Amino acid sequence: MVTPFSLRRRMLALGGAGAALGLAGCAADPVPVARAAADPVNAVLRPWLSLNGAWQIDPASPLQVQRPAPARVNFMRPVGVAARNDIVLIADAGERVIWRMDRARDAVARVASFPGSIPEAGTSMQLGNDLSVWVALPTERAVAQYDLRGRLVRRWADTLEAPRPVAVVVPEDRSEVLVGDGASARVVVFDPLGHPRHVLGGNRPPALQSIAAMALGPRGLYVLDRIAQQVVVLAPSGAVVEVIGEHQLVQPRALAVDASGRVFVSDEQEQRIKVFREGRLLASVGGAGGGPARFGRIESMAIDGNLLYVADSLNARVQVMMVSPPSMEVGMTPP
């Protein structure tokens, strides 16, 4: 299909070629190349990598001496993703496995078995600085923590307040574990040893109608409320700090927040990623399809530095998007 942009680029190229032929005697002078201005709508996110699989390695071997075996794993249905530096965790509902991927070495190791996800939410995972992982397992009514080698460390469960945990976030200091429940629409705060401390907001009526995903950010705990079609930011007390995406989200599913406070929300209606800054819609990127910056079904997202990882179950891949620095937002017009 020829788009208006590609047609304009061809016309410019033909014009440049005609000028070069007409000025054969001045062939030594370079012909100026016309460059299109950057698309302000897509300036925040740019496709970079597509992770479809990797060479499988033994998770019991030391990381420094592992060599990829002659067996390549292809992802089947990635529904969860977490990342830290070159290490990427992928929950594959097709293989029923949680993979640890060394992106720089194109290698994966099996971390743990995976019971699968639920229809209304992707799989929430958190990767610690020691490469341990916390995973929300709604089908098992618990959150599980695994160490680097995939050994079970601890389980967090409260069948009364959190009978269907769909989201988990852990601060860097690991002082607490916050679990979002899809059934009660509550956030239960656990201590590091797995004991429930309290429910965020106490006994007051919850400000949430549902919980599909959560992320920690500069302003507090960001909670994706799928039914209310918005993101609610909660203070440690449970008070509402901010509401994002009201009247701009239709079928929100996945959530990520970067260090500068930009909020990335996937909208299932058009398979687009909508980016918000201070409540304002900054960009809308993507669309249905299988090419770069196109998605089949976004299940989960994770931010690591200037990279956004997007788990796409229908395209059987994790797409990595480069996130532009906040300085590039100057003068950007919303879509």
Helix content: under 10%
Unreliable spans are 1-41
Beta-strand content: 35-45%
Do you know the CATH architecture of the largest domain? 6 Propeller
Task: Assign the CATH superfamily of the largest domain.
Answer: TolB, C-terminal domain
What's the rounded overall pLDDT mean? Answer: 85
Class by SSE composition: mainly beta
Element string (H = helix, E = strand): HEEEEEEEEEEEEEEEEEEEEEEEEEE
How many domains would you count in the coordinates? 2
- Computed over alpha carbons, the radius of gyration is 22 Å
Strand order of the largest sheet: 3-2-7-6-5-4
Biggest beta sheet summary: 6 strands, mixed
Total count of helical runs of at least 4 residues: 1
Q: What would the CATH topology of the largest domain be?
A: Neuraminidase
Summarize the structure.
By secondary structure, the chain is mostly beta strands. The protein is 6% helix and 42% strand. It has a six-stranded mixed beta sheet, with no helix packed on it.
Descriptive overview:
It is a single chain. The chain has one helix at residues 4-22, and strands spanning 45-51, 53-56, 72-74, 78-84, 87-92, 97-102, 107-113, 125-127, 133-137, 142-146, 152-156, 165-169, 177-181, 187-190, 196-199, 213-217, 220-225, 230-234, 240-244, 252-257, 263-267, 272-277, 280-286, 298-304, 307-312, 317-323. With 335 residues, the chain is mainly β. The chain folds into two domains: 1-36; 40-329, Neuraminidase (6 Propeller), CATH 2.120.10.30. It has a six-stranded mixed β-sheet with strand order 3-2-7-6-5-4, with no helix packed on it. Strands 1-26-25-24 form a four-stranded antiparallel β-sheet, with no helix packed on it. The longest helix is centred in the first third of the chain and has 19 residues, at 4-22. The model is unreliable at 1-41 (pLDDT under 50).
